[in-house]
């Protein structure tokens, strides 16, 4: 990396089937245990960290939330949170005639990674027409923070100018 920081990015597309995600949680635990650098994991987990991350449809399974939370705790990963749209997936219309919305996409990281990029944040953008998922954008630094200040320049002749002290 340019700045000398070494970290790992893992992207996930998890199965919506509960029994297959158990293997993902075991693999993620094994993977993060072997890392001694910053680590960030993101994208479509097809699970919820919290019960309030679903609107309409069948109730959220507390057991599935607990399995995901237990995995993030074992791996020492924390949810980076996000701003923009609170739910990242729009599903079919439910039996009550309401569209189902869920937060299936998120970004989690370890403390080492978070300490490297204190200004990093996650924004959930608009949903594109051809997708049922909102785009999740990870920004490491705001543009304003990355601007390098311009060097101070002075012409030596200015120093002998009598009116220089009036500036």
TrEMBL record:
It comes from the Eukaryota. InterPro entries: Endo/exonu/phosph_ase_sf. This is Uncharacterized protein.
